[in-house]
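4.2 Preliminary Data

To establish feasibility before requesting continued support, the project team ran the inverse folding procedure on a target of 681 residues. The structure was first converted into the token representation described in Section 3, and no sequence information of any kind was made available to the design step. The complete token record follows.
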């Protein structure tokens, strides 16, 4: 095959403690997927894994836990920016793994984007603190002197990340970002066949000097005795094949110490053409394009790629023809050339395993696209890893296990007809647990039916049609905001999903005690804790000067019938409960005409606001509003305003959450809410 690539001769080192350790005589040779030539070697059987663990536990972990979530998030952003300056170099290197520039964009830019999302979420959704709460305070006693709250704290162990070959950069970064944000150091073990790309990115991370020493280390090649040395505060997250996952998760030491083991493994993902979609429609074309992309991007080496295509019986021929026409346009070849639309599999070994899987599939399905000769013209068949896409059709998908369980990890997919939606859902679920299933439909009742029948079998359900297509992110794209993982065959694990992933690396503990003690632990006001009153109005105090629990008690204000009528006509809210005595009294909730809830909120603000310009910059909203007791003409209200929680946003201002209670003249609570303001530091 003609190619345009320079041949690196890379010694892929491991990073142990703060030293680079070169490969030894046990190293594995790595060949270019394109040329078949040797490009790198990786592995060293002499790596001192115990020293790595000690370094992470004694240096990296404590240094990370000194930082708050916001400090760590800021470092993640710096890291993403730094790696982002070197994407061209990484892309060039990745050509040898068979990846085109477009493929690498998913891996490299996708990895960087994931770090950015965690940097941003860490700042917005986590406190500027080293622990965070989970859920609300639970009232555990009749009079409120004993309460409970769940909190998350960082685990003082090490996260071991074992990654698959197909995403050498994203695979590392998507696990690392939430781990570091959680305050846990990591040991990264990339798949050997693409470890030269991971190592290059890892070197950038070390060179950047952004994270404290010991925050991350790297093992290229065998993990040696590492898993046998892990302890109960450590965690293993694995991505790869089901076979390897099964071997590793049954490690006696991991079981003995209950070391959490998260597995993301292979999956027979499916796509479903809704029964409402007809041939020739734009939605049908969308369906075809999505399958084409899933089969050919990264030469089909995506854990989320579409392996099974379910279409109504009547459309099986149309779908076959449309996919054949698309696949015939593929340009397979040197991934560094711009005209190439599909590169190679990662290695000759990988090609052999795809060939073997195809042989199994062909026992129960007919090849409808792709030559049975898997080599393409002119290639060096001994080492390089090019392959033509292969589309199969299985006409009797009920009576075969093969097409639902054999994963050909390449550009290979199997069409199968379904009789009705019920049958389609049964087939979707025959994958025994998958990462993602997609459905092209315009019909909300189909989306609901598929969700009810099939969601439990899939980590993600992706509905698409013309309305969402322009902005939809694609069947195969795991997003940092949404969970990635799936039940059963897919490993039963979960990654990403926003801040959920950070919590995988922390321990959730139920804290019980008095409101005062809980308030000291969490740094947030707990109802029932001592309130302090100050002479200075809280609106005159800067963000930093405000104390949690500091409370302003206002004078009372009477609500008159004139107030209610004025408010009704002024706003246009002349709802009968405020204007019609008989109708209001007939309502089960009211004794007669009552004040508007919005009037109470407005009067409350009038009672607690201190009007002059000062540190309060803006009212950004209110949450958890509830009206608990009607307020009748002649009643009066007063307000207590308590500093509940503070979250610094930047060097200029921070958000203050206030607990606001409205009480009537009998000290009965009539309404409560949380007020959010931005206050200057
Ligand atoms: P693999 O052969 O199972 O290897 C996965 C990782 O495990 C590699 O880093 C491998 O290292 C390591 N490993 C193997 N044996 C080990 C042992 N005894 N101790 C410690 N580590 C060990 O999978 P792969 O071929 O790299 O990846 C392809 C598979 O991954 C496909 O089946 C695909 O579906 C799946 N995948 C799943 C996801 C997901 O998110 N669910 C994502 C990507 C890929 P070496 O390379 O050094 O052997």
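Position-by-position output of the design step:
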């Amino acid at each position: 095959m003609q190619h345009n690539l320079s041949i690196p001769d890379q010694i892929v080192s491991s990073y142990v403690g703060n030293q680079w350790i070169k490969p030894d005589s046990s190293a594995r040779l790595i060949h270019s997927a394109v040329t078949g030539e040797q490009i790198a070697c990786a592995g060293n059987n002499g790596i001192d894994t115990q020293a790595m663990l000690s370094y992470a536990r004694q240096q990296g972990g404590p240094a990370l836990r000194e930082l708050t979530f916001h400090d760590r998030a800021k470092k993640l952003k710096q890291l993403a920016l730094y790696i982002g300056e070197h994407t061209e170099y990484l892309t060039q290197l990745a050509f040898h793994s068979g990846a085109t520039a477009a493929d690498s964009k998913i891996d490299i830019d996708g990895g960087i984007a994931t770090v950015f999302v965690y940097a941003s979420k860490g700042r917005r959704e986590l406190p500027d603190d080293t622990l965070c709460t989970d859920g609300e305070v639970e009232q555990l006693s009749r009079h409120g002197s004993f309460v409970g709250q769940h909190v998350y704290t960082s685990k003082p162990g090490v996260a071991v990340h074992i990654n698959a070959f197909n995403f050498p950069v994203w695979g590392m970064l998507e696990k690392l970002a939430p781990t570091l944000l959680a305050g846990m150091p990591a040991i990264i073990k990339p798949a050997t066949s693409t470890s030269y790309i991971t190592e290059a990115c890892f070197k950038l991370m070390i060179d950047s000097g952004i994270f404290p020493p010991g925050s991350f280390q790297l093992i290229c090649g065998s993990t040696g005795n590492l898993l046998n040395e892990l302890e109960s505060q450590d965690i293993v997250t694995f991505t790869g094949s089901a076979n390897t996952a099964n071997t590793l998760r049954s490690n006696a030491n991991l079981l003995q110490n209950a070391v959490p083991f998260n597995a993301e493994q292979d999956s027979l993902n499916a796509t479903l053409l809704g029964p409402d979609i007809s041939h020739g429609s734009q939605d049908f074309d969308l369906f075809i394009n999505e399958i084409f992309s899933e089969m050919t991007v990264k030469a089909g080496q995506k854990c989320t790629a579409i392996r099974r295509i379910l279409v109504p019986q009547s459309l099986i021929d149309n779908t076959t023809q449309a996919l054949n026409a698309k696949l015939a346009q593929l340009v397979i070849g040197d991934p560094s050339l711009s005209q190439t639309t599909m590169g190679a599999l990662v290695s000759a070994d990988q090609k052999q395993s795809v060939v073997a899987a195809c042989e199994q599939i062909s026992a129960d399905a007919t090849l409808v696209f792709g030559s049975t000769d898997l080599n393409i013209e002119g290639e060096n068949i001994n080492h390089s890893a090019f392959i033509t896409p292969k589309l199969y059709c299985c006409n009797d998908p009920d009576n075969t296990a093969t097409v639902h369980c054999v994963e050909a990890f390449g550009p290979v997919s199997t069409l199968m007809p379904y009789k009705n939606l019920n049958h389609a859902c049964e087939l979707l679920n025959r994958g025994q647990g998958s990462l993602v299933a997609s459905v092209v439909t315009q019909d909300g009742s189909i989306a609901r039916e598929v969700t009810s029948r099939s969601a439990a079998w899939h980590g993600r359900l992706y509905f698409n049609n013309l309305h969402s297509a322009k902005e939809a992110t694609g069947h195969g794209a795991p997003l940092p905001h949404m969970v990635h993982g799936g039940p059963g065959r897919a490993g039963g694990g979960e990654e990403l999903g926003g801040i959920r992933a950070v919590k995988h690396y922390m321990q959730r503990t139920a804290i019980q005690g008095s409101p005062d003690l809980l308030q000291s632990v969490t740094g947030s006001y707990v109802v029932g804790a001592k309130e302090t009153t100050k002479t200075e109005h809280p609106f005159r105090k800067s963000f930093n000067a405000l104390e949690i629990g500091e409370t302003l008690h206002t004078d009372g204000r009477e609500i008159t019938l004139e107030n209610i009528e004025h408010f009704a006509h002024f706003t246009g809210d002349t709802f009968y409960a405020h204007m019609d005595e008989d109708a209001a009294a007939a309502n089960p909730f009211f004794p007669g005409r009552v004040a508007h809830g919005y009037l109470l909120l407005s009067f409350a603000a009038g009672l607690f606001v201190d009007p002059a310009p000062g540190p309060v910059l803006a009212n950004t909203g209110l949450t958890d509003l509830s009206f608990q007791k009607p307020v009748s003409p002649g009643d009066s209200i007063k307000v207590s305003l308590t500093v509940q929680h503070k979250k610094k946003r930047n060097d200029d201002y921070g958000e203050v959450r206030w607990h606001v209670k409205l009480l009537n003249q009998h000290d009965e609570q009539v309404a409560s809410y949380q007020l959010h303001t931005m206050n200057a530091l």
